[in-house]
């Protein structure tokens, strides 16, 4: 057996040397292999730059909102370069949880009661070390809405918090009932038709910091608010909804357009900051023809408070970019520029 093992090792070594010599001389040494690799690389680069990397399509229902985004959120008009080896939306969605880093975040948990006897878990990042907004009472608050089964531990939520920390803002994550480890006190769990929980959270957060600018950002357009009342809910409940989400779940209907005066009658919040900003920016992908048909572009054009940023590739929680997309993504850059624009320049839209 020892002799056989020695013979096998010798044979393997000789075979390796032979293959190495043949590949070096017969493939690369002749220049054919190098030419094929260079030719393939050039063809791939040309295809990527001509068909994959494109500027997003910006669809807005109002000229003032369009100018506002171009001035203060320039990322929505810049070319999006998805990861060169994974640009398809489903591939990016599957890849992101495994490849994207998770910045460390220390939360402060709060459980609030609901009218039906249930409870909601809120994870706060107070950002008390903020040098831009040292006064907690006026520090901007970003309400983050994870996806269907997401929690405050998702990588995209952690990156949003990290970016908000850089801007000096405070964040609070709304965990849907029963998904963040808290006890489920009632049979009621998550349902897209249930907007009462979100209303409860918004009123609670605003009551704690009535003088602070208040914005909301989510990851799935049809998950957090009832799609059938899209205009009504977005305008009345969420002053800002940066929905970075799923194309197929997004449905806009031709409902009655409510004026700011009508909205103030129903939700007369004591602080005007909650009502001034009620514009929505949605980052979507139309890389699949079925999904492209589901995006209500014409309906969005009729709403001056809505903007769609449509990319050719990427999608959902993906929108990866760079050779090795461990850190910030295109979605993160849109989020950071948009919330900063609304906090610092939102008065231009009022």
Describe this structure in words.
The chain is of the alpha/beta class and 350 residues long. It has one domain: 3-Layer(aba) Sandwich (Rossmann fold). It contains 13 helices and 9 strands. Strands 1-9-8-7-6-4-5-3-2 form a 9-stranded mixed beta sheet, sandwiched between helices. A hairpin with a 5-residue loop joins strand 2 and strand 3. Helix 5 runs parallel beside helix 13. The longest helix is centred in the N-terminal third of the chain and has 27 residues. The radius of gyration is 25 Å and the shape is globular. About 16% of the residues have low confidence. Keywords: Membrane, Transmembrane, Transmembrane helix. One of its GO terms (biological process) is medium-chain fatty acid catabolic process. GO terms for molecular function: acetylesterase activity; monoacylglycerol lipase activity; phospholipase A1 activity; phospholipase A2 activity.
